[in-house]
Amino acid sequence: MSRPATFVPPPGARAYALSTARGEFAVVDAPVADGVEPRGVALLLPGFTGSKEDFNPLHVPLALRGYRTVAVDGRGQYESDGPEADESAYAQEELARDVLAQAQAVGAGAPVHLLGHSLGGQLSRAAVLLDHTPFRSLTLMASGPAHISESQQQRVKLLQDALTVMDMAAVWDAIQAMETPEETETAALDGGLDDRDDLRRRWLGTKPGQLLATGRQLCTEPDRVAELAAVPLPFHVLSGDKDDTWPLPLLDDMAVRLRARRTVIERAEHSPNTDRPLATAHALADFWDDATA
What we know:
Layout: E1 14-20, E2 23-30, E3 40-45, H1 56-64, E4 67-72, H2 92-107, E5 112-117, H3 119-130, E6 135-141, H4 150-165, H5 168-178, H6 181-190, H7 197-205, H8 208-220, H9 225-229, E7 235-240, H10 248-258, E8 261-265, H11 272-275, H12 277-292
Parallel strand pairs: 3-4, 3-5, 5-6, 6-7, 7-8
Antiparallel strand pairs: 1-2, 2-4
Protein backbone atom coordinates (compact mmCIF):
# COMPACT_ATOMS: atom_id res chain seq x y z
CA MET A 1 0.00 0.00 0.00
CA SER A 2 1.38 3.39 -0.97
CA ARG A 3 1.83 5.91 1.85
CA PRO A 4 1.72 9.54 0.68
CA ALA A 5 3.26 11.90 3.21
CA THR A 6 0.11 14.03 3.15
CA PHE A 7 -3.36 13.96 1.63
CA VAL A 8 -3.41 17.77 1.41
CA PRO A 9 -2.86 19.07 -2.15
CA PRO A 10 0.38 21.03 -2.51
CA PRO A 11 0.36 24.84 -2.81
CA GLY A 12 -1.29 26.00 -6.00
CA ALA A 13 -2.93 22.66 -6.74
CA ARG A 14 -6.70 22.24 -6.82
CA ALA A 15 -8.81 19.19 -5.97
CA TYR A 16 -12.08 18.91 -7.91
CA ALA A 17 -14.29 16.59 -9.95
CA LEU A 18 -13.13 16.44 -13.59
CA SER A 19 -16.05 16.17 -16.01
CA THR A 20 -15.48 13.77 -18.91
CA ALA A 21 -17.54 11.97 -21.54
CA ARG A 22 -17.56 8.95 -19.19
CA GLY A 23 -18.52 10.72 -15.99
CA GLU A 24 -16.73 12.62 -13.24
CA PHE A 25 -13.39 11.67 -11.71
CA ALA A 26 -11.72 13.14 -8.63
CA VAL A 27 -8.43 14.84 -9.50
CA VAL A 28 -5.63 16.95 -8.06
CA ASP A 29 -4.68 19.47 -10.74
CA ALA A 30 -1.43 21.42 -10.35
CA PRO A 31 -0.74 24.25 -12.83
CA VAL A 32 2.62 25.33 -14.17
CA ALA A 33 4.52 27.49 -11.67
CA ASP A 34 4.25 31.26 -11.99
CA GLY A 35 6.78 32.72 -14.38
CA VAL A 36 7.67 29.34 -15.90
CA GLU A 37 7.09 28.67 -19.58
CA PRO A 38 4.52 25.88 -20.06
CA ARG A 39 6.04 22.70 -21.49
CA GLY A 40 3.08 20.32 -21.44
CA VAL A 41 0.39 18.48 -19.50
CA ALA A 42 0.67 15.09 -17.80
CA LEU A 43 -2.05 12.69 -16.64
CA LEU A 44 -0.99 10.54 -13.65
CA LEU A 45 -2.69 7.23 -12.80
CA PRO A 46 -2.18 5.58 -9.38
CA GLY A 47 -1.75 1.91 -8.57
CA PHE A 48 -3.72 -0.82 -6.80
CA THR A 49 -5.12 0.40 -3.44
CA GLY A 50 -3.60 3.82 -4.22
CA SER A 51 -5.03 7.21 -5.10
CA LYS A 52 -4.26 10.55 -6.73
CA GLU A 53 -2.55 11.67 -3.49
CA ASP A 54 0.33 9.29 -4.21
CA PHE A 55 1.58 11.91 -6.66
CA ASN A 56 1.38 14.90 -4.29
CA PRO A 57 5.19 15.10 -3.88
CA LEU A 58 5.69 15.35 -7.66
CA HIS A 59 3.42 18.29 -8.45
CA VAL A 60 5.61 21.19 -7.29
CA PRO A 61 8.93 20.05 -8.84
CA LEU A 62 7.17 19.25 -12.12
CA ALA A 63 5.36 22.63 -12.07
CA LEU A 64 8.76 24.29 -11.76
CA ARG A 65 9.86 22.44 -14.90
CA GLY A 66 6.84 23.74 -16.83
CA TYR A 67 4.42 20.83 -16.54
CA ARG A 68 0.82 20.92 -15.46
CA THR A 69 0.11 17.61 -13.73
CA VAL A 70 -3.32 16.07 -13.17
CA ALA A 71 -3.49 13.05 -10.86
CA VAL A 72 -6.74 11.10 -10.98
CA ASP A 73 -8.66 8.57 -8.93
CA GLY A 74 -9.93 5.89 -11.30
CA ARG A 75 -13.48 4.60 -11.31
CA GLY A 76 -14.33 3.23 -7.86
CA GLN A 77 -11.00 4.41 -6.44
CA TYR A 78 -11.09 6.60 -3.29
CA GLU A 79 -13.05 9.75 -4.26
CA SER A 80 -14.23 8.68 -7.73
CA ASP A 81 -17.60 6.98 -7.70
CA GLY A 82 -18.33 3.51 -9.01
CA PRO A 83 -20.56 0.50 -8.25
CA GLU A 84 -19.92 -1.34 -5.00
CA ALA A 85 -19.94 -4.87 -6.32
CA ASP A 86 -20.46 -4.91 -10.09
CA GLU A 87 -17.06 -6.06 -11.30
CA SER A 88 -18.01 -5.66 -14.96
CA ALA A 89 -17.74 -1.89 -14.50
CA TYR A 90 -14.05 -2.40 -13.70
CA ALA A 91 -13.11 -4.57 -16.67
CA GLN A 92 -9.77 -3.45 -18.04
CA GLU A 93 -11.23 -2.10 -21.29
CA GLU A 94 -13.80 -0.07 -19.37
CA LEU A 95 -11.10 1.50 -17.21
CA ALA A 96 -8.93 2.08 -20.28
CA ARG A 97 -11.76 3.95 -21.97
CA ASP A 98 -12.05 6.05 -18.81
CA VAL A 99 -8.37 6.98 -19.26
CA LEU A 100 -8.99 8.05 -22.85
CA ALA A 101 -11.86 10.27 -21.69
CA GLN A 102 -9.73 11.75 -18.90
CA ALA A 103 -6.95 12.55 -21.37
CA GLN A 104 -9.38 14.25 -23.74
CA ALA A 105 -10.81 16.35 -20.89
CA VAL A 106 -7.41 17.31 -19.46
CA GLY A 107 -5.72 17.98 -22.77
CA ALA A 108 -8.67 19.79 -24.37
CA GLY A 109 -7.77 18.19 -27.69
CA ALA A 110 -3.98 18.39 -27.35
CA PRO A 111 -1.97 15.23 -26.56
CA VAL A 112 -0.83 14.72 -22.96
CA HIS A 113 2.00 12.79 -21.35
CA LEU A 114 0.63 9.66 -19.66
CA LEU A 115 2.14 8.09 -16.54
CA GLY A 116 0.83 4.96 -14.86
CA HIS A 117 2.10 3.57 -11.57
CA SER A 118 1.85 -0.22 -11.09
CA LEU A 119 -1.80 -1.12 -11.91
CA GLY A 120 -2.07 2.35 -13.44
CA GLY A 121 0.69 1.37 -15.86
CA GLN A 122 -1.27 -1.61 -17.11
CA LEU A 123 -4.38 0.53 -17.52
CA SER A 124 -2.26 3.14 -19.33
CA ARG A 125 -0.95 0.46 -21.67
CA ALA A 126 -4.49 -0.76 -22.38
CA ALA A 127 -5.62 2.79 -23.14
CA VAL A 128 -2.71 3.45 -25.50
CA LEU A 129 -3.40 0.17 -27.32
CA LEU A 130 -7.01 1.28 -27.85
CA ASP A 131 -6.01 4.75 -29.11
CA HIS A 132 -2.60 6.37 -28.83
CA THR A 133 -3.56 9.70 -30.37
CA PRO A 134 -4.54 11.48 -27.10
CA PHE A 135 -1.01 10.93 -25.78
CA ARG A 136 2.42 12.46 -26.35
CA SER A 137 4.35 9.80 -24.40
CA LEU A 138 3.89 6.90 -21.98
CA THR A 139 5.79 6.31 -18.74
CA LEU A 140 5.38 2.95 -17.01
CA MET A 141 6.43 3.46 -13.39
CA ALA A 142 7.06 0.28 -11.39
CA SER A 143 4.75 -1.51 -13.81
CA GLY A 144 5.86 -4.65 -15.58
CA PRO A 145 5.25 -6.57 -18.78
CA ALA A 146 2.68 -9.06 -17.50
CA HIS A 147 1.22 -10.38 -14.22
CA ILE A 148 2.68 -9.54 -10.81
CA SER A 149 5.13 -11.79 -8.93
CA GLU A 150 4.00 -14.99 -7.22
CA SER A 151 4.48 -13.48 -3.75
CA GLN A 152 2.29 -10.50 -4.64
CA GLN A 153 -0.30 -12.77 -6.23
CA GLN A 154 -0.57 -14.56 -2.89
CA ARG A 155 -1.21 -11.25 -1.13
CA VAL A 156 -3.89 -10.28 -3.64
CA LYS A 157 -5.54 -13.71 -3.20
CA LEU A 158 -5.63 -13.19 0.57
CA LEU A 159 -7.31 -9.82 0.03
CA GLN A 160 -9.86 -11.30 -2.38
CA ASP A 161 -10.70 -14.08 0.07
CA ALA A 162 -11.14 -11.55 2.87
CA LEU A 163 -13.42 -9.32 0.76
CA THR A 164 -15.80 -12.23 0.16
CA VAL A 165 -16.51 -12.64 3.89
CA MET A 166 -15.80 -9.22 5.46
CA ASP A 167 -16.72 -5.61 4.82
CA MET A 168 -14.09 -3.01 3.98
CA ALA A 169 -13.74 -1.80 7.60
CA ALA A 170 -13.11 -5.30 8.89
CA VAL A 171 -10.59 -5.99 6.13
CA TRP A 172 -8.75 -2.77 7.01
CA ASP A 173 -8.49 -3.87 10.64
CA ALA A 174 -7.14 -7.25 9.53
CA ILE A 175 -4.53 -5.61 7.29
CA GLN A 176 -3.30 -3.44 10.14
CA ALA A 177 -3.04 -6.45 12.44
CA MET A 178 -0.88 -8.25 9.86
CA GLU A 179 1.65 -5.42 9.40
CA THR A 180 5.16 -6.10 10.59
CA PRO A 181 6.71 -3.87 13.29
CA GLU A 182 9.10 -2.53 10.63
CA GLU A 183 6.20 -1.41 8.41
CA THR A 184 4.45 0.27 11.33
CA GLU A 185 7.64 2.05 12.41
CA THR A 186 8.37 3.22 8.85
CA ALA A 187 4.88 4.66 8.51
CA ALA A 188 5.28 6.61 11.73
CA LEU A 189 8.70 7.96 10.75
CA ASP A 190 7.42 9.08 7.35
CA GLY A 191 5.37 11.65 9.21
CA GLY A 192 1.74 12.53 9.78
CA LEU A 193 0.10 9.21 9.02
CA ASP A 194 0.92 7.17 12.10
CA ASP A 195 -2.73 7.43 13.17
CA ARG A 196 -3.72 6.01 9.76
CA ASP A 197 -6.85 8.17 9.51
CA ASP A 198 -6.18 9.33 5.96
CA LEU A 199 -5.14 5.90 4.76
CA ARG A 200 -8.21 4.34 6.37
CA ARG A 201 -10.51 6.92 4.77
CA ARG A 202 -8.98 6.18 1.37
CA TRP A 203 -9.43 2.45 1.91
CA LEU A 204 -13.07 2.82 2.92
CA GLY A 205 -13.73 5.07 -0.08
CA THR A 206 -12.51 2.44 -2.54
CA LYS A 207 -15.17 0.08 -3.86
CA PRO A 208 -14.69 -3.65 -3.18
CA GLY A 209 -15.75 -4.48 -6.74
CA GLN A 210 -12.87 -2.36 -8.03
CA LEU A 211 -10.36 -4.16 -5.81
CA LEU A 212 -11.64 -7.60 -6.78
CA ALA A 213 -11.67 -6.90 -10.51
CA THR A 214 -8.33 -5.09 -10.72
CA GLY A 215 -6.66 -7.55 -8.36
CA ARG A 216 -7.66 -10.33 -10.72
CA GLN A 217 -6.26 -8.34 -13.64
CA LEU A 218 -2.91 -7.95 -11.87
CA CYS A 219 -2.69 -11.70 -11.33
CA THR A 220 -3.60 -12.70 -14.89
CA GLU A 221 -2.34 -9.88 -17.15
CA PRO A 222 -0.68 -11.27 -20.30
CA ASP A 223 2.52 -9.95 -21.83
CA ARG A 224 1.49 -7.27 -24.35
CA VAL A 225 4.88 -5.62 -24.78
CA ALA A 226 5.16 -6.56 -28.46
CA GLU A 227 1.81 -4.90 -29.16
CA LEU A 228 2.86 -1.78 -27.29
CA ALA A 229 6.23 -1.61 -29.06
CA ALA A 230 4.37 -1.20 -32.36
CA VAL A 231 2.72 2.03 -31.13
CA PRO A 232 4.45 5.23 -32.37
CA LEU A 233 5.06 6.86 -28.97
CA PRO A 234 8.15 7.55 -26.85
CA PHE A 235 8.27 5.14 -23.89
CA HIS A 236 9.87 5.43 -20.47
CA VAL A 237 10.30 2.59 -17.95
CA LEU A 238 10.99 4.00 -14.48
CA SER A 239 11.36 2.14 -11.19
CA GLY A 240 13.17 2.05 -7.90
CA ASP A 241 16.29 -0.05 -7.50
CA LYS A 242 14.27 -2.64 -5.57
CA ASP A 243 10.83 -3.98 -6.49
CA ASP A 244 9.16 -7.18 -5.30
CA THR A 245 6.08 -6.72 -7.51
CA TRP A 246 7.97 -6.90 -10.83
CA PRO A 247 11.65 -7.84 -10.39
CA LEU A 248 14.08 -5.39 -12.00
CA PRO A 249 15.33 -7.82 -14.69
CA LEU A 250 11.76 -7.99 -16.04
CA LEU A 251 11.58 -4.19 -16.17
CA ASP A 252 15.01 -3.96 -17.78
CA ASP A 253 14.00 -6.45 -20.47
CA MET A 254 10.70 -4.70 -21.08
CA ALA A 255 12.54 -1.41 -21.65
CA VAL A 256 14.78 -3.07 -24.23
CA ARG A 257 11.79 -4.58 -26.03
CA LEU A 258 10.05 -1.19 -26.08
CA ARG A 259 13.24 0.69 -27.07
CA ALA A 260 12.33 2.83 -24.06
CA ARG A 261 14.30 5.14 -21.85
CA ARG A 262 15.16 3.24 -18.66
CA THR A 263 15.47 5.07 -15.33
CA VAL A 264 16.31 3.41 -12.01
CA ILE A 265 15.84 5.62 -8.95
CA GLU A 266 18.38 4.70 -6.30
CA ARG A 267 17.19 4.02 -2.74
CA ALA A 268 13.57 3.67 -3.91
CA GLU A 269 11.26 0.67 -4.00
CA HIS A 270 7.83 0.11 -5.58
CA SER A 271 6.74 3.74 -5.15
CA PRO A 272 9.59 6.01 -6.28
CA ASN A 273 7.06 8.85 -6.43
CA THR A 274 6.86 8.79 -2.62
CA ASP A 275 10.26 7.24 -1.80
CA ARG A 276 12.40 9.69 -3.85
CA PRO A 277 10.05 12.30 -5.32
CA LEU A 278 12.62 14.89 -6.41
CA ALA A 279 14.78 12.39 -8.29
CA THR A 280 11.64 10.89 -9.82
CA ALA A 281 10.29 14.28 -10.88
CA HIS A 282 13.60 15.28 -12.49
CA ALA A 283 13.72 12.01 -14.45
CA LEU A 284 10.14 12.48 -15.64
CA ALA A 285 10.67 16.10 -16.71
CA ASP A 286 13.88 15.21 -18.55
CA PHE A 287 12.04 12.50 -20.50
CA TRP A 288 9.05 14.73 -21.24
CA ASP A 289 11.38 17.52 -22.41
CA ASP A 290 13.01 15.16 -24.89
CA ALA A 291 9.69 13.62 -25.96
CA THR A 292 8.26 17.08 -26.62
CA ALA A 293 11.35 18.16 -28.56
